[in-house]
């Protein structure tokens, strides 16, 4: 009997303690036993401020009542009247159902999902900076929401620099375990001690694994509620950064009910905002440290053909930027018209380049962004010394010629060129890649297509037409901003190709006349001045001893490769600025050295393209047949050669003049 009475008294004592705990928990958020307030903005300026503060109440709390003291003062009112924070902060109160005994309460996971569903429609996520403030279980709801989303959304991670937690039970609370025996509330089961709480264990693991986490600042209670410490110090400070702050004379209930501006809770929150949020440039901020600024115009000085300049975003938010317009096709600025994104507190590079035909001392472009205060940035590109700029292009051309010659020489020595000797397409692909690499690191920051455009531009100036055409083909899909430059270069290469073809036809006709015993006078008929103008020549800026020396070495190496011999003749004519008769003889020499391949029927077939140095008349390797001591140039029967000669002589004057005008245009 006595034991039964003792056991009965113990059960009654525990039951009374549980009921007392529930009453205390319910009293935390009087007057309502259940939260009936919808989430919503408490204070929102128009236009909106830079920082959104999102308040999330705890278990059995209410959307706004949790944060309001008995005298009507609240975090919301204190923030609005704060001289430093008021002009910076808008406040949003989030709430969820948490009933003591009735159904419908949300646990941590469910409340976090609800929080996520409200933030975007409410416009919270549109703010440059978002700070979360949580009380009790509300802090766990915030952590669960962020753990679910920060790694999935880098933009959200950049916007949340800080969360402030008031007694968030990160290791659970003993009182929740007792209350759960009576209330059977799923939210209470989430607050049991972490050792027996899989929800808190999972939250702890997920939070620790986040790649980028905001600062967590914590405050904790120092007083008991009817002799009970609702959330212990260790539980309230587990994931905090920096020293947690004790709120003196505050229990779990009064902890978040500031009644004056000097209340410790408000001083803690305002101090965290002033120290860790206000100094940040929360929105995106565009800076161009390598540009000189004069009012609304930025100036960039270009002393070499390509220069890289820093584009910095010193804010935390992301921004998009692109080139709106530019003054000339000779100017390339990367990126082009396609918007690019730059993360907060990071640096990207603008590449400013001038093509080889640039002849102005000043260019301009507009840099645009999606920032309201920096929609357009006017940039003036100054070229103080065009001669210096062209020397830069010349150095690039010499480097390209030297690297191409070395590639061919080394390939011949190692045997790597054997498979490419008779495959001009594959060989030109390799040579184009060597040329692009030779331009160096200055163009490596450009998109791939623009790198190829600049490579083709320089190769075309050097009259390496076929390699240039191969490089230009790789620029397919270039930004629409640079398509006019690519189209212009394409026309230039067509004109060069026509000039080379015209000279080669003259050489073939000369050979045909030799075979037929006809005089050469008819081949050289025409206006000497106009005929001389059509002969390919390199531009004046490239006419130097260094380039001539480099081009001669390249001609020598190209002439040793079957599929490059005719191109070697074209390069030699242009680099040496040969008169028409001499240019024709160089192409004649290349044609006479042209090997003839046997066809399936045994008839000789021309191996094209043809160009071979005078020192290598006979090709190596079996299966090649020769007609007489020297090859017949194009390998065609004599009658066909005569017909071809007559066709050349009968070209209409109109076509001749059109070709001459086209070539003249691109040689200026």
Automatic annotation (TrEMBL):
<dbReference type="GO" id="GO:0016020">
    <property type="term" value="C:membrane"/>
</dbReference>
<dbReference type="InterPro" id="IPR000073">
    <property type="entry name" value="AB_hydrolase_1"/>
</dbReference>
<dbReference type="Pfam" id="PF12697">
    <property type="entry name" value="Abhydrolase_6"/>
</dbReference>
<feature type="region of interest" description="Disordered">
    <location>
        <begin position="626"/>
        <end position="653"/>
    </location>
</feature>
<protein>
    <submittedName>
        <fullName>Alpha/beta fold hydrolase</fullName>
    </submittedName>
</protein>
<feature type="domain" description="AB hydrolase-1">
    <location>
        <begin position="53"/>
        <end position="209"/>
    </location>
</feature>
<dbReference type="InterPro" id="IPR052374">
    <property type="entry name" value="SERAC1"/>
</dbReference>
<keyword id="KW-0472">Membrane</keyword>
<feature type="signal peptide">
    <location>
        <begin position="1"/>
        <end position="34"/>
    </location>
</feature>
<feature type="compositionally biased region" description="Polar residues">
    <location>
        <begin position="636"/>
        <end position="645"/>
    </location>
</feature>
<dbReference type="InterPro" id="IPR029058">
    <property type="entry name" value="AB_hydrolase_fold"/>
</dbReference>
<keyword id="KW-0256">Endoplasmic reticulum</keyword>
<keyword id="KW-0732">Signal</keyword>
<keyword id="KW-0378">Hydrolase</keyword>
<dbReference type="GO" id="GO:0016787">
    <property type="term" value="F:hydrolase activity"/>
</dbReference>
């Amino acid at each position: 009997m006595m034991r039964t009475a003792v056991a009965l008294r113990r059960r009654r004592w525990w039951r009374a303690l549980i009921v007392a705990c529930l009453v205390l928990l319910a009293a935390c958020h009087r007057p309502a036993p259940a939260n009936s307030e919808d989430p919503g903005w408490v204070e929102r300026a128009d236009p909106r401020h830079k920082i959104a503060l999102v308040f999330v109440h705890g278990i059995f709390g209410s959307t706004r009542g949790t944060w309001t003291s008995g005298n009507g003062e609240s975090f919301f009112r204190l923030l609005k009247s704060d001289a430093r924070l008021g002009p910076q902060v808008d406040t949003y109160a989030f709430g969820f159902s948490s009933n003591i005994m009735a159904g419908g309460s949300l646990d941590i996971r469910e409340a976090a999902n609800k929080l996520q569903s409200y933030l975007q429609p409410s416009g919270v996520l549109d703010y440059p900076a978002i700070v979360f403030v949580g009380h009790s279980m509300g802090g766990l709801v915030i952590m669960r929401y962020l753990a679910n989303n920060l790694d999935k959304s880098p933009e959200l991670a950049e916007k949340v620099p800080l969360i402030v937690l008031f007694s968030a039970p990160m290791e659970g609370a003993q009182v929740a375990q007792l209350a759960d025996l009576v209330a059977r509330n799923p939210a209470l089961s989430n607050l049991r001690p972490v050792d027996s709480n899989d929800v808190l264990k999972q939250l702890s693991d997920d939070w620790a694994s986040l790649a980028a986490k905001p600062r967590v600042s914590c405050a904790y209670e120092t007083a008991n509620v009817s002799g009970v410490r609702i959330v212990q110090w260790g539980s309230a400070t587990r994931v905090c950064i920096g020293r947690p702050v004790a709120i003196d004379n505050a229990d779990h209930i009064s902890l978040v009910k500031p009644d004056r501006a000097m209340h410790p809770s408000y001083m803690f929150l305002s101090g965290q905002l002033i120290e860790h949020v206000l100094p940040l440039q929360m929105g995106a901020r565009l800076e161009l440290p390598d540009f000189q600024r004069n009012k609304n115009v930025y100036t960039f000085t270009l002393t070499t053909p390509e220069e890289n300049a820093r584009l910095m975003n010193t804010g935390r938010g992301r921004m998009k930027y692109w080139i709106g317009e530019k003054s000339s096709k000779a100017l390339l600025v990367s990126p082009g018209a396609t918007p690019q994104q730059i993360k907060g507190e990071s640096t990207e590079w603008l590449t400013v380049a001038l093509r080889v035909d640039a002849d102005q001392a000043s260019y301009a472009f507009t840099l645009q962004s999606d920032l309201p205060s920096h929609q357009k940035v006017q940039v003036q590109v100054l070229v103080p010394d065009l001669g210096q700029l062209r020397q830069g292009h010349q150095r690039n051309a010499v480097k390209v010629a030297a690297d191409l010659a070395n590639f061919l020489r080394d390939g011949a020595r190692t045997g790597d060129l054997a498979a490419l000797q008779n495959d001009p397409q594959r060989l030109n692909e390799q040579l184009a890649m060597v040329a692009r690499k030779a331009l160096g690191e200055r163009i490596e920051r450009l998109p791939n297509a623009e790198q190829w455009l600049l490579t083709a531009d320089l190769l075309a100036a050097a009259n390496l037409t076929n390699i240039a055409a191969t490089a230009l083909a790789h620029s397919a899909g270039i930004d629409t901003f640079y398509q006019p430059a690519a189209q212009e270069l394409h026309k230039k290469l067509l004109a060069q190709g026509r000039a080379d073809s015209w000279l080669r036809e003259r050489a073939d006709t000369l050979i045909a006349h030799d075979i037929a015993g006809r005089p050469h006078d008819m081949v050289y008929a025409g206006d000497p001045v106009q005929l001389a103008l059509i002969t390919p020549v390199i531009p004046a800026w490239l006419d130097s001893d260094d380039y001539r020396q480099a081009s001669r070495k390249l001609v020598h190496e190209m002439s040793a490769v079957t599929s490059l011999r005719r191109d070697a003749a074209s390069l030699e004519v242009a680099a040496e600025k040969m008169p028409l008769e001499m240019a024709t003889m160089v192409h004649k020499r290349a044609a006479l050295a042209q090997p003839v391949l046997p066809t399936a029927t045994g008839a000789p077939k021309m191996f094209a393209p043809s160009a071979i140095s005078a020192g290598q008349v006979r090709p190596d390797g079996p299966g090649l047949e020769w007609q007489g001591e020297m090859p017949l140039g194009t390998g065609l029967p004599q009658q066909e050669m005569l017909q071809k000669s007559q066709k050349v002589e009968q070209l209409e004057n109109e076509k001749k003049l059109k070709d001459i005008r086209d070539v003249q245009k691109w040689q200026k």
